[in-house]
Amino acid sequence: MEINFAQLQADLIAGDLGALEAERKAFTKKFWKRFFICLALFVGIPLTIYIVNPDSMIVALIAAGVILIASGIVVGIGYNRFHKHFKEQFKGKVIPAVVKFVDERLHYDPNRELIDKYTESHIFTQRYDRYKAEDTISGKFEATDFAFGEIHTEYKTVTTNGKGQRQEHWHTIFKGMLFVSDFHKNFHGETMIDVDTMERYLGKLGRKFQQWNPSRPGDLVKLENPEFEKKFAVYSTDEQECRYILTPSMMERLLDMTKRINFKVAISFRNNQVYIAVFNNMDLFEPSVFGSLLKEEDYRIIINMMKLMTGIIEDLNLNTRIWTKE
Fold it and tell me: Of these four, 137, 219, 305, 317, which has the most CB atoms within 10 Å of its CB?
């Protein structure tokens, strides 16, 4: 379905988005007023103390420090309080309206996490030390239940510098959108599809490295589609089942899907479901206090990603019952 962005924007401005944008503008005006008052105090009072008594440099520096801390507290508390309200209103009213505009069958939950599906997928073998998971959209198209949401996982490393000081470093494992859907077949094994970089750059030697990959279950499976083989590395604990899943038609659909998404993807088939991790490295649903809420390009990005995710149902032909569950 083609989205009428002009109509969407007009509807949003006439509703909650217009009121929220007015709130945002009023707050930013007040914020910058407070900021410049604090800046004037930070510069003016210590400078005045020093001019009146050049020997009171220490007093002037102490005054500057006190004003800086007090200003940070005042400005910071005001910003945090508004940002919390602003974010709740945006995610509670504006995003649901956008989602329903795209498709009435979709439901948006800003607080729902798909971290359990992330773990179930077995796509990621690196243990995470912290995560953020939110902004999940779910629905049911015909007989197919699905959901997709944003996830950011990281692991921690610790080093010690030359002075013996302990330093923590955080590294991203995955930041993007995780899609999960019924596949309408009982899987006895599991099949993993990774983007193939080794064979692309190292040729036959790269394929040898793929065969020795200890992080993937089962064996490397060689398939008959040259384009698919060039783009992906496929591992499965059940080669026969893998070939039933990755039919020539399914391989073509997966290739078409990845071309449309235009981001790195990893896919797994297990637990009678298909999991697709899209590495888009975005925070799609986070509003900016200091940026206009009325920019069409922002809604185009959100809606296009939603259409790509929901389009997976059609791309992979998930509503067609090729198999029946055993």
Answer: 137
Residue 28, C-beta contacts closer than 8 angstroms, at least 6 positions apart: 289, 290
Per-residue pLDDT of the chain (326 residues; tens, 9 = 90+): 566 777 777 878 888 888 899 999 999 999 999 999 999 999 999 999 989 988 889 999 999 999 999 999 999 999 999 999 999 999 998 899 889 888 899 999 999 999 999 999 999 988 999 999 999 999 998 888 999 999 999 999 999 887 888 899 999 999 999 999 988 778 889 999 987 544 444 444 444 444 445 567 788 898 889 899 888 989 999 999 999 888 888 899 889 888 888 888 999 999 889 999 999 988 888 888 998 887 877 888 888 888 888 888 888 877 765 544 54
Token pair 């094994």 is found at 189
Cα angle, residue 77 at apex, residues 76 and 80 outer, rounded to 5°: 80
- Answer with the one of 102, 117, 139 that is the final residue of a domain: 102
The answer to whether residues 233 and 267 belong to one domain is yes
* Domains of the chain: total: 2
Residue 322 lies in a domain: no
Q: Give the full edge-to-edge strand order of the sheet including 191-195.
A: 107-109, 130-141, 144-160, 166-182, 273-279, 264-270, 191-195, 232-236, 219-221
Residue 237: which region, alpha, beta or left (left: phi > 0; alpha: psi -120 to 50)?
alpha
Domain of residue 50: give its range.
5-102
Give the residue carrying structure tokens 């379905």: 1
Q: Which long-range contacts (CB under 8 A, 24 or more apart) does 32-41 make?
A: 34/74, 34/75, 34/78, 35/75, 38/67, 38/71, 38/74, 38/75, 39/71, 41/67, 41/71
How far is residue 264's CA from residue 255's CA, in Å, rounded to a whole number?
Answer: 12
Question: What 3-state class would DSSP assign to 187?
Answer: coil
Q: What angle do helix axes 5-14 and 95-102 make, rounded to 10 degrees?
A: 140
